[in-house]
Amino acid sequence: MARDFDVVVIGAGVAGAMTAYRLAQDGARVLMLEAGSRNPARAQMVGAYATAAAKTLHSPYGNPETDSMAPSPDSSASYYDQPPAPHTQYKSTYERRTGGSTWHWLGHTPRMLRSDFKMKTLYGGSRDFPPGMVDWPITYDDLEPWYCEAEHEMGVAGSDAEWDGLSGSPRSKPFPMSMIWPSYSDDWIAQRINGKKFQGTEYLVRSTPSARNSQLYDGRPPCAGNSICVPLCPIGAKYDGAVHVAKATAAGAALWEQCVVNKLDQDADGSVHTIHFVTYGGVQQTVTANLVVIAAHAIETPKLLLMSGIANSSGAVGRYLMDHLSKSVFGLAPDKLFPFRGPPSTSGLESFRDGDFRKRRAGFRVSLNNDGWSRKGAPYAEIIDLVGNQKKIGAELQAALFERVTRQVRLSCSVEVAPDFNNQVQLSGTTDALNIPHPKITFMPPDYSYRGLSQATKTMADMLRLLGATGVDLGSDDKAYDGAGHIMGTCRMGDNPKTSVVDAQCRTHDHRNVFIVGSAVFPTVGSPNPTLTLAALALRAAKDIARQLGAKPSSAKSSGGAKPKGPRR
Amino acid sequence: MNKPQKVSGKPRKVGSRSDLLKLLCEAAELEHGIACSYLYAGFSLKRELAEGGMTWQEQQTVRRWASQIYFIASQEMLHLALVWNLTTAIGGTPYYLRPNFPQASKYYPLNAALALEPFGPSSLRRFIQYERPQSVKPERNLKSLLTVAGEDAAEIEFSSIGELYALIESGFRGIGEQELFIGSPDQQMTPALIHFPNIVAVTNQASAVKAIETITHQGEGTRIDRDDSHFGAFVAMLKELLDSKSRGAGFAPARPAMVNPSSGLGLGYGASANAIDEPRAQQAAGLFDSAYSLMLRMLAWSFQVENSGIEAQVKEFCAVAIDFMPRVILPLGEGLMLMPAGKKYPGKTAGPGFGLTRHVMLPGEAKNARKLCGERLQELAEIAAALLENPLPEPVARSCTHLQQIASHF
Amino acid sequence: MISPKPAAMLEQFLALSRILTGVDALDPALGSQYLDRLLSSPLEPSVRLILKRFHALKSEAGLAGQVQKKIVGDDELRPTVCQMVLLWYTSALRDNQSPAIALRYGTQEEYFSGLAWRIMGAHPPGLSGGYFGHWRYRPDNEPPGKT
User: A219 contacts in B (CB within 8 Å)?
Assistant: First the structure.
């Protein structure tokens, strides 16, 4: 039967765009359907950021129409339907727009470690080990060549000397670019802690691999230290999903924006070919495909599956919602470290991610940050205090401001959240302007992860002590955490169709022609930022999809005629 | 009419160490001179909105251009460092001299003379010519991009830096390894000693080829035309500049710096440069030349000595030299372009001449070299102190203070 | 509508701002915009009072010290002084109704001309700080006189 497209990819973020790009290159007729809008020119967004009263994740991207028609937790604080405090909150958010949430990601691209794929085998068995913690159905070695591909596609800068073989996880190719230079602050800290130990684990500061150009790469300039990677790189030195959206369309993929998918139909034989979507004007319509790829990030994807009543014979759709627990600690160093320069973070510590302790508590990464106390209002707070309270003006004010702000340090951690069946995404009773349900989120970090958070806090406190820091602020609430922006786990990958949503190729167990790409498929999360891993999985899945399509340069005849030019508005 | 000597298609034979060393000296001169040319253009780009001629959006673009030019200049400096490693590996000495600006247009077989010129279509066109790969994608429409109304487009046939490196590589490949690599491995500079993460220690043919490939991959001698090369970056920059010119009349990204300035110290060293005509600017330009010369000598010394046993001093020299760049050379270069050039140059500001003149060469003996550097730093600090007694543009004042700090910490 | 300000008022505002900020080279065009913002805010009466008092002080010796004592030292006026500095330093005005620091910005030009960043050895977030890797070294715009 003739279908409009070979492949429809739902969601034009990094995962969807990379998949679309590879398939279009292979000759498949591809459509990317994106709920959000295209961004205006970068300079315009920088302008929006500059004058925004609050420099939030969304501050460059605000657009009244998109914000109401394709709302997201970035655009609206009440988008998630979750019980208010003191119940624990799910704090990570995402964007809905062409290019996706990588518009405002920090850009860090560490890989998962070898052990991260085999948590149950390596660390399971004890009472403290979470029951939901499973093995991935693939290994580090299976994914390693795809990590290399993903690094090449995005343009990752890193240090081979520091990273090859970390925790038994070798690299078969060098980094495409040499590392983003560590900051003055990183070097100062490294001098004081490298080689020392905390509870038997050695401190070692390493530069963090990042999808941020350290040289001209892929027609984009090297990083020039604009320092607002979060929420926007003014010059495109930081990778964002729009890079692959452009490559996909150049390779022949179609892109329909402001089209919100609200249902997928299951045919009698269990396959899914009909995709229902609605435009901002309210025009409901369909498009058909031989194969469907859902890449709508880890909350919209399960939401869509639940709305459609598909892919969920396991009952696992929306379940095992994960994040990384993030926490910042602050201090004043005895020397000047000159923050507010360079990317917000250039180095970190990897030594606390893996070890026997994972039988009882979560591992974590530590980041060294270059943004001073900006999260506590610096430098505005300091200026207001120095003038308003301390009555300083002129040269005295300048000296005092310089003296204080340049010594500000922030350390942060990213703690593994273990999968818990009860942490989930469901459909809310509240609907949006297009009558689509908001997501209802239930999230409580497991004790395993709280124990990791506690250990991370102690570790960072020790680091501040070694630095001779004063004015130390560890936060007042042991259990308080921030979201890391890492939304994962809601369509977990596994070999067993009874307990997982997709197989090792990211194909849903229930529907042979439906694939899911993105961080939704992670069965466990380790402690690295997820983007590189999800990109590797997407590139790998694209190969399997192409094979399944039997993709050859497709002619109009074989797919039943000319594809539709665009949606009806 | 003199045509540049066409080298491609008929390789000169590089048969001996002497041939190879001569080519490496030429490469060193070129990388060095080109880096100075890029830095001059970078210094001329305005930074603050208060300087006028830019909207805030244009300021974003201008800062990005400056950052890219400085990045490319830093890669040329890496290339110079690699050429120095290649030189010492085969028994030579790092060559840090170069002819003063302006250079006679046929001094190198390039189709564009090296010059010190502020940022603009003219300087960008020259940069594009320096960096041209051996074949250019037709869709670049390079000929029309390089044409200014009334000027002829460049000839497509010409010698390129790429061909120079091709010759150098052929030398390294062709001459027997045993016989060629007579330099001490202890002379080689590595990332442990100098803050160049991509520097390659050269001890044999394989590492020599790797060093050359690092150079050609980044900028000049690419056989194919890549967007990520220096060439691609400058072409994109020129297109962007010409676009904005056709949009807004008020856009003036560059300070009105003079062309090929001279501090007067360089008198007698060839070159018919434009002597700065205003005493304080001339003094500051003189300080620039002296600081630049000292920085070069400290670096070249580090590349020349056998560093085992004196790693700490080598590291120190490199650290000081590299500290000079952002804290003395850059602000002084930029600041000079905020000072008047003098009555002879109405409407123009001054600029650094990168004048290399008679100077005291550093001795090989480590302790003496350190002593001489310390003494010279003190002398420069005193010149800086004298300059500071009167009002100066902020970057110049800052650079003088930094010089004093560096001297006092040495 | 803001009542038109006389040129003398702008001059006074700039002269006072030089003392408050410690920066001599203040852009008069920026100063005019900032004065407009102050005069069209609830701070207007306080701003006029400050400039009047500054005018009275100008003939006295040790002007900076007088400003310190009689304007900055005045508890009623100091919040407005703080706002003036905040404007020049960051282009933001604080919304004084809120105990948390809630800010309002003006134009992009103002934002990218904020003086605090340079004083801190940094750059306005969003504007490039320079060439790749500059963050590895001490700032090249570190204020002179500091070690």
Answer: 227-228, 232, 236
B365 and B231 housed in the same domain: no
Residue B223 near residue B134 (C-beta atoms within 8 A): yes
CATH of the domain at B171: 1.20.1260.10
Asked if residue C56 belongs to a domain, the reply is yes
Can you name the residues that pair with C105 across neighbouring β-strands?
C92
From the candidates A244, A324, A486, A511, give the one annotated as an active-site residue: A486
Confidence at residue B246, expressed as pLDDT on a 0 to 100 scale: 56
- Asked if residue B264 and residue B231 are part of one domain, the reply reads no
Minimal C-alpha gap between A182 and chain B (Å): 12
CB atoms within 10 A of CB C35: 22
For residues C98 and C60, membership in a common domain is answered with yes
Number of compact structural domains in chain B: 2
Which of A341, A407, A408 should be substituted to probe chain C, the one whose Cβ sees the most C Cβ atoms within 10 Å? A341
Q: Do A50 and C105 touch (CB under 8 A)?
A: yes
If asked whether residues C104 and C129 sit together in one domain, one would say no
The packing angle between helices B279-304 and B366-388, to 10°, is 160
Rounded mean pLDDT of chain A? Answer: 96
C107 with C42, same domain: the answer is: yes
Do B64 and A224 make contact, defined as CB atoms within 8 angstroms?
yes
Q: Say yes or no: B203 and B319 in one domain.
A: no
Phi, then psi, of A401 in degrees rounded to 5? -65, -45
Distance from CA of A151 to the nearest CA of B (A): 17
User: Consecutive 10-residue runs of chain A (569 residues): their mean pLDDT?
Assistant: 94 98 97 98 96 97 96 96 83 98 98 98 96 97 98 97 92 96 97 97 98 94 97 98 98 98 96 98 97 98 98 98 98 98 98 98 98 97 96 97 97 98 97 97 96 98 98 94 97 98 98 98 98 98 95 47 83
- Residue C37 in any domain: the answer is yes
* Residue of chain C with shortest Cα separation from A212: C132
> Is the same domain home to C17 and C49?
yes
Relative to beta strand A284-294, strand A5-10 is parallel
Give the integer Cα–Cα distance in Å for C69 and A101.
52
ipTM of the complex: 0.95
Which domain covers residue C142, as residue numbers? 121-147
Task: Give strand ranges (E) for B258-323.
Answer: 261-262, 274-275
8 Å CB contact of C135 and A181: yes
Residues C103 and C37 in one domain: yes
CA B363 to chain A, closest CA, distance in angstroms equals 33
Measured in angstroms, the CA of C18 and the nearest CA of chain B are apart by 16
A344 shares contact with chain C (CB less than 8 Å) = no
* Residues C133, B74: C-beta atoms closer than 8 Å: yes
Span B220-268, pLDDT tens digits = 545 566 778 898 899 999 999 988 665 567 899 999 999 999 987 655 5
**3-state secondary structure string across A240-269:** CCHHHHHHHHHCCCEEECCEEEEEEEECCC
**Residues C128, B56: C-beta atoms closer than 8 Å:** no
pLDDT value at B1 more than 60: no
B239 — contact with chain A (CB < 8 Å)? Answer: no
Last residue of a domain, one of B231, B255, B279: B255
Which among C19, C82, C18 is positioned nearest to C47, based on CA atoms? C82
Q: What is the pLDDT of residues C64-115, one digit of tens each?
A: 999 999 999 999 999 999 999 999 999 999 987 777 899 999 999 999 999 9
Number of domains in chain C: 2
pLDDT value of position C147: 38
Determine whether the interchain pair A387/C107 forms a contact, defined as Cβ–Cβ distance below 8 Å: no
In a shared domain, residues C88 and C131? no
Collapsing DSSP to helix, strand or coil, A524 comes out as coil
- Active-site residue flag, A486: yes
From the list A418, A395, A412, the residue with the least C-alpha distance to A484 is A412
Q: What is the mean pLDDT of residues B121-147?
A: 78
Give yes or no: residues C40 and C93 share one domain.
yes
Give the span between the Cα atoms of A488 and A322, in whole angstroms: 5
Structural domain boundaries, residue B240: 1-255
